[in-house]
Amino acid sequence: MPLRGSRAAGPWGRLPPPLLLVALAACAARASEITFELPDNAKQCFYEEIVQGTKCTLEFQVITGGHYDVDCRLEDPDGTVLYKEMKKQYDSFTFTASRNGTYKFCFSNEFSTFTHKTVYFDFQVGEDPPLFPSENRVTALTQMESACVSIHEALKSVIDYQTHFRLREAQGRSRAEDLNTRVAYWSIGEAIILLVVSIGQVFLLKSFFSDKRTTTTRVGS
């Protein structure tokens, strides 16, 4: 069952046959990667149907907004809190489902009054199946199969690194844009202050060199 509270992917019926086989093979281990906007004073929850005994991992990171922190809470179908952290920038939590049902995890920005956040999370349900299942095999992996397994593991590491660096790049760009905005406002403020001080000095110097007229009053005898 796809993750509720998120956008569903495009229909698989439009994929070419080779890509369709890859997509169906990936269904054994579901993974949802979503980047969403979390407004100030807001809370966003997601739900996932999980089978008992399934190993799951929740990883999240705040990309933009304020101090780059958010509240996160994970509950099982009975409402028992499995994970709860306040004002975290990023974190990862792994657990094994204790029962069948709908698990709920929420991100909250209710402590922020003015700043909205951009949050990324990756929720993995289950583990990737092996490329070459060991059941019903009487021989060891061939050299070609071993090479395929090594390449597969290396590609998974590359995907993880790419995701990590994309998040760092997005966060760095947000910090740079925020710094640029602050520098621009500071420069405008300095220019205004300099203009006011210059005008004040001109009027002050003018008052030093201006002639003061004296009025003489004659008193009749």
Automatic annotation (TrEMBL):
PROSITE patterns given in the database record: GOLD, PROKAR_LIPOPROTEIN
Compartment annotation: Cytoplasmic vesicle, COPI-coated vesicle membrane; Cytoplasmic vesicle, COPII-coated vesicle membrane; Endoplasmic reticulum membrane; Endoplasmic reticulum-Golgi intermediate compartment membrane
GO annotation, cellular component aspect: COPI-coated vesicle membrane; endoplasmic reticulum membrane; endoplasmic reticulum-Golgi intermediate compartment membrane; ER to Golgi transport vesicle membrane; Golgi apparatus
Membrane-related topology note: Single-pass type I membrane protein
SUPFAM superfamilies hit by this protein: Supernatant protein factor (SPF), C-terminal domain
Signal peptide annotation: 1-31
Keyword Transport: yes
Family to which the UniProt record says this protein belongs: Belongs to the EMP24/GP25L family.
Protein name: Transmembrane emp24 domain-containing protein 7
Organism: Columbina picui
